[in-house]
Amino acid sequence: MATPHIAGIAALIKQKNPSWTPSMIASAISTTATKYDINGDPILAQGSDIYSLYPSTPFDFGSGLVNPAKAMDPGLVFPSEYEDYINFLCSLPNTDPSKIKTATGRSCNTPFANPSDLNTPSVTISSLSGFRLVRRIVKNVGTKPETYLCAVLVPEGVTVKLNPLWFTIAPQGSQELRIELNVTKPQDGFRFGEIVLTGNLNHIVTITLSVWPVSMS
């Protein structure tokens, strides 16, 4: 039932905000979701044994449980346009540019340096070796200026440096976030964290971090 629920919520958001693009709607749904149930406990996922429950990761529940009311007024969104997705496809490893042009009609003229540069409300790096700089652009979809403070829950095995640590953003204004990740200890799998942007008008924007630190070289 997740698909019709999300489709219905997306339709409500689009009705309230007709000019929003699909990426903006998806961003609003993701960044306002919660990783805790109605009792305040972390979301659990069912294991292979029906009697065995284990703490979930973002690969199990995505951004979390959707909050439709908050998604209608997310404060900030992460917009991506059609060209951004073409650049993302062109930056994937072992990609054949001719096949992308056949499928989309667009050439790989400006691929991203890394697929993680696609402007989504999450950061996933499947093989982090040494240092990586990731950029994100947020847009204020509110009607008032708002000041945000940035905090980070760091994934195990990496350091995360944010710039800026706080910012004030005007209505319809944009702000670049620079996320610097550096391996401190290689891990045997993905490690998870999050960036939380807390606004003075009660907006809370959460960005999931999924990183596999493999080398410090």
From TrEMBL:
Cited SUPFAM superfamilies: Subtilisin-like
GO terms assigned for molecular function: serine-type endopeptidase activity
Domain Peptidase S8/S53: 1-37
Keyword Signal: yes
Signal peptide: none
Keyword set, alphabetical order: Signal
Domain spans labelled Subtilisin-like protease fibronectin type-III: 117-211
Biological process, per Gene Ontology: proteolysis
Protein's UniProt keywords contain Signal: yes
Coiled-coil ranges per UniProt: none
Family under the similarity heading: Belongs to the peptidase S8 family.
Full protein name: Subtilisin-like protease fibronectin type-III domain-containing protein
